[in-house]
Write a structure and sequence with these properties.
Chains A, B, C: This is Polysaccharide biosynthesis protein with aminopeptidase-like domain protein. Chains A, B, C: It holds the Pfam family DUF2172. Chains A, B, C: InterPro entries: DUF2172, DUF4910, UCP015244, UCP01524_HTH, WH-like_DNA-bd_sf. Chains A, B, C: It comes from Rubripirellula amarantea. The structure is a homotrimer. By secondary structure, chain A is α/β, with parallel strands linked by helices. Chain A folds into 3 domains: about 10-60 and about 160-350, Aminopeptidase (3-Layer(aba) Sandwich); about 65-155, Domain of unknown function DUF2172 (Glucose Oxidase, domain 1); about 355-430, Arc Repressor Mutant, subunit A (Orthogonal Bundle), CATH 1.10.10. Chain A is about 30% helix and about 20% strand. The first copy, chain A, contains 12 helices and 18 strands. In chain A, strands 1-10-12-11-13-16-14-15 form an 8-stranded mixed β-sheet, sandwiched between helices. The first copy, chain A, has a 4-stranded antiparallel β-sheet with strand order 5-4-9-6. A two-stranded antiparallel ribbon of chain A has the order 2-3. The longest helix of chain A has 20 residues, at about 335-350. The two termini of chain A are about 25 Å apart. The relative contact order of chain A is 0.13. The model of chain A has no long low-confidence stretch (mean pLDDT about 95). Chains in contact: A-B, A-C, B-C. The interface between A and C is medium-sized, with 24 and 37 residues.
Chain lengths: ~425, ~425, ~425
């Protein structure tokens, strides 16, 4: 594996720009169109369609939703809340409507945010048939009494739910799992950052000459998509997945965040905490009680996959979340690159983890191997101290990741020592405990 | 079981008023009289008599003590420290005396509290024969030189030690154990609060239509009484008792307190901490090193019962303790009711604890069962979040109490969710791990 | 064993004065001479010689080093940096040299400490052949351009490495291990305090009429000496050593310090922390990452001995360390005695540790044995409380050391209670769990 990661911040940002205008929802052509664009970057991204009504655990695949237009015409004949201008204006999964009503009746179909008066909220109604419009609080306050024409040209029909899946074979059948979602309309951090970072991680992994683990990478609608996917694959996944990451909200520059798996101490959790500690010691730590994305399914009782989440600003915790303000200004090439690096480093730590063991009792004589200063001066040996600390714990029972935690050093640096010391026949390594 | 607890604060306080004047000691008619009054509230309270000299572990039952009168006549012929006015005036278990002596000699038989000059201390001498008087420091300082007549008309004789025992059968032979003491003369928080709360807990338990556990409830003299009781029943108790509470100092309004079992992590401890955390997060936490009541015996090596203590102001920690100031002004109906509720809630948590398990993998679809909001709005799902958090841990391996701890919610609320979700066939429960 | 320790502070200090001028190194006559002086204090100190070139794990015994004289003659013909004045002036293991050179060339062979301008540093070059001089920064700055004659009359030759070993038999084959080093020239805290305290501990142990454990006490050159010793004895030591202490930097008065074994929770660690907590609750706690002496070998993977270190000011952490300032002013009789007491107390705790068990269930009746006050007064029983706390944990499963930790009392005091209570047939003890 490479020692540094590809610089793909600009590529990820451009990809987000291209995907931004598409109207994604739980189902429908927006998802298909987005997966089509993503599949340009890698080989072998499979697109699956699951018919409406298919049963999956306690759920079934919903109807497919299609919308052609949606707007309100005010008493002056001006169009407001026009879906053509912003796809957040229509409540997701709105049923069709074409009628005229007074302002009072209309109000019951309007959604706005009094505390964020210039933001259009994002609202959906997946499981109850209704229609509605979202608009800014300021716009709503300016509405005058009178007759309003409302029109949503939409359709709910037996179609299918669409998701993408990419599998990369590795030396082992054991898998690392990545999951991201494609189901929100025009929002940047809480939608597009996920697939943009994930497809570039996939591209990076696909370019590797050797992978220790196999990879399972999915692009799904949130919640129902993960339930559908698990209903088909949970047995194989429970058997093979050694670590997994839900890739969500990975685009802005403000902070790094970590949300644990339900177990809290899986390999994914330990490696995520390790990497974030060395990326930014002040990263935000959440608990599983703060969950809100597909870890809800992946970590549910009976599924119990080791899935943790490494984010930038977490969903629900930044002001632009689930509004029209979560636009391309919120994310940046460097924000995306930071998240890419953190998750790629998590993956690299897992790929390179091993059980190192000193070949001989007592400290090795590094001096005659050119690995130790030959003069003992006060304070002189500081530069090799970290390597000596690592060797002190190479007892064949502790993994390199555990050692990295004990001596508080980044695993990326320990990996370079391991290479040197294996070459010098001072330590040997195994993938299992000695 | 009921969802709310009976309002018995006034009843408990009245009972304390009635019991207050009686002169209780380790043995004797004061104990018998008190048990007689308590037995009016429940059916089946058995009174046992254990003869003086009966051997029990390292101890033997002491002589019975009877006192008819006790006073000092000062040089002016005025009676002071008269037992008839306050039964704390005579040192407990005083031998008889009727003589005249000078002030200097008398001083060696007097007890007072320099730092609490208007309080009569409570002093006993159970295991060495002596006599003495207790009086206020102020009174003592006013004594003039001269001849004092001292008279204690008491008797130490082969009689018996008296205790009360109530057993309530439940579905299981496994028992919950309650212990309180009846051996102090006129003191309120550190004596009468215990039997008053305990007898009302017994009445509440007796009125239940169904009990999962059996109950063993004892009213005993402290220390020697618990040793006597254990010497007769410890084998059955070690086999059956799943949880127990020593009921002591449960009458005032100032604070809630918790003293752990020796083990510190028994079911009693976990449930006591849970209930007190939700009753008053600032409750006083003691350690087993602060012990001072019958948990000393119940938790001793070789006995090891899971007995924890839930109190209001702990013995030894409030200024009126073991003095005449621990009177009926210290306790109150609301103080007694607060303790009643806390211990009753502990019992209810144990009765209702179970292992809940999600019927299906992944989150259940609560929406179609009317248990989840059908519109996804920013910040909208907060009201069902706690129930979803509970479900996320219903893996069949964690008890409801453990889940309550993880999600930091009162078990009483989780119990209502469990009922709903069992009815909706979303979870199932067992009394053991799945 | 005695209840108090011998007052040997002055003896230890005098011994340090006597050993101070000797030029010790990894090998050579300085070590032999020092061991000769130490062997005057005890019977049976064996001196071993291990030939140059002997293989030991990853290392081999180095050549022996002998130095007769070493000095620089400045352009004025004045001798500076003369080994005869201070044996720190010549870099340890310097090869012979006798030549004239300019100041610029000389500078490359000089060592000084800019931040401590009046201290001569201590420098060695054990594993690369070179020569050099150490001097104060002030002296170095005063050197004028011109020709300097440098002369070191030394020799590196096939000889041997010398160490001392004392074995004391005890009732058990299980051993307590003490290790200290004799390999530094004239330095006091970081050299002589170690052998001076250790030989007096040996003398104290030898004088005991009965020892539960056997003792293995070694005086070795640091690092290579412990590696040599382990290569010969590690199998027996791994089988028998139950606790061990590296005795280093035990002479000054400033502070107490603790450095754990690699495991961190061995008997040595637990007892060291216990004793230091009761010696000075503010003692300095280091981690194994701060290690720097022979615990590096004793605790290395594949050796894993339970060796902890109890120090006064730790090597590397006090300003005089590894300079000419670490002289006899740094250490003191009281500093040495404090360390002696701490380590002796660690040993005594191990010797006296046991599993106490109450003979009967419930609390014993101490009153009738004269061990409990016979009058119950408010606050009266405080003086026996600690003993009662101990008894409360005498369940036959917890060692006296564990009980001392739980009730936060010094084990020396608990030992006196144990004696009383065993005599009173209240508890019994075993060396293993009941």
């Amino acid at each position: 594996m490479n020692d540094t990661f590809p610089c793909v911040g600009d590529d990820m940002y451009s990809l987000a720009e291209r995907l931004f205008p598409i109207n994604r929802s739980l189902t429908g052509d927006g998802v298909r169109q987005s997966l089509g664009i993503l599949s340009e970057l890698v080989t072998g991204l499979q697109v699956h369609e699951v018919p409406t009504g298919t049963s999956c655990f306690d759920w079934s695949v919903p109807k497919e939703w299609k919308i052609r237009e949606g707007w309100i015409e005010d008493p002056n004949g001006d169009r407001i809340a026009d879906f053509a201008n912003c796809n957040l204006h229509v409540v997701g999964y709105s049923t069709p409507v074409d009628t005229v009503m007074g302002l009072d009746e209309l109000q019951q179909h309007l959604y706005s945010l009094p505390e964020q008066p210039d933001a259009i909220p994002y609202v959906t109604s997946y499981y109850k048939e209704r229609w509605g419009f979202c608009l800014t609080e300021n716009q709503r306050r300016s509405l005058q009494p009178g007759n309003y024409r409302v029109r949503i040209d939409s359709e709910l029909f037996d179609g299918s739910l669409t998701y993408g899946e990419l599998k990369l074979a590795g030396d082992s059948e054991k898998e690392i799992f990545l999951s991201t979602y494609v189901c929100h309309p025009s929002m940047a951090n809480n939608e597009l950052s996920g697939p943009c970072v994930t497809i570039h991680l996939a591209k990076w992994l696909q370019a590797m000459t050797q992978r220790r683990y196999s990879y399972r990478i999915v692009f799904i609608p949130e919640t129902i998509g993960s339930i559908v996917y698990l209903s088909r694959h949970h047995e194989a996944m429970r058997k093979n997945v050694v670590a997994g990451f839900n890739v969500s909200c990975v685009g802005d520059d403000r902070v790094y965040s970590y949300l644990p798996s339900r177990d809290g101490n899986t390999l994914s959790d330990r490696v995520a905490k390790h990497v974030l500690h060395h990326t930014d010691p002040d990263y935000c730590r959440y608990t599983f009680l703060d969950r809100g994305s597909d870890e809800r399914q992946y970590c549910s009782p009976g599924i119990d996959l080791p899935v943790a989440t490494v984010m930038r600003s977490k969903y629900g915790m930044y002001p632009e979340y689930h509004t029209s303000h979560d636009n391309l200004d919120v994310i940046s090439p460097s924000g995306l690159q930071g998240a890419f690096n953190a998750i790629a480093e998590c993956i690299r730590c897992i790929e390179q983890d091993c059980y190192p063991k000193s070949v001989m009792p007592c400290e090795p004589q590094l001096g005659r191997r050119g690995l130790y200063p030959d003069l003992s001066v006060k304070g002189g040996a500081d530069s090799v101290r970290e390597m000596m600390n690592m060797i002190a714990y190479c007892d064949g029972k502790k993994s390199l990741l555990e050692i990295a935690e004990i001596i508080d050093a980044p695993m990326s640096r320990l990996t370079t020592y391991v290479k040197k010391l294996v070459n010098a026949s001072v330590i040997e390594t195994q993938s299992e405990k000695f």
